[in-house]
Amino acid sequence: MIINNYTNKLEERFRERASFSSDELLSFFKEWEPDLKETTFRWRVYELKQRGFLQSVKRGFFTLRTKPVFELSVSDVGIKAYKRILKSYPHIRACVWNTQNLSKLMLHQPARSWDVLEVESDAFDLVWENVISDGIGLPINAHHHGSIEYVNANSSTPKYFIKKLLTRAPVQPVAGEEYVLPTLEKVLVDIFCEPDFFFTFAGSEYSVMLNNAYHHFAVDFAKLLQYSGRRNKAKELKDLMLTTTDIPPNLVA
Fold first, then answer.
1. What domain of life does the native source organism fall in (predicted)?
2. Fewest CB atoms within 10 A around its CB: which of 21, 136, 171, 240?
3. What is residue 153's predicted lDDT score, i.e. its pLDDT?
4. pTM for this entry
């Protein structure tokens, strides 16, 4: 049976489910192909995901409720700073984004937004010196968790921040563009881990953001929890999601 013949049956079987496991999906396929090999099953899953019919929600769990990918924004100020830094240090890992689009997840709308440029830790001091010497920006505040706040050196354009990018932090290139964005999962974890820095999005507003992200956008909870583990906050974040959001426990466990 070719993959096209599965879609209607998958819809009938799993359409009312928020998520289902890999074992359940394998059992479904084996109803028609009892001798289905593991490699063939993985190819079936890959093809369904490529067609946008199936989405991963965490390791070993899927959903048919295909949701759009959340798109973070970035301003001209942020892009300019990013490109100038990467021109000087073309081999460093970096990403850039603006907080504006996070308002789509929020109940209370923030009065302002700002750009965040993140560079790998080993290059942070070099980038700092580069920003000052080239006149890209002027430091106005140093934060205890390793970030520097800047304002544009020659205008009243919005200020931006330069922060350290953690090793293996989930980021994504933007098709057709010369910059890299963080994933939604990374940003949600960073907000939780740095409430002083991301104070606009902290507290009860954060639970609202998690709920809205889950209900309206594609979220890879395996990626989110893995990154929170690297930041030593996995347990605390799991507890928060279990007690203050609608996210199903099987996606959090």
1. Bacteria
2. 21
3. 45
4. 0.79
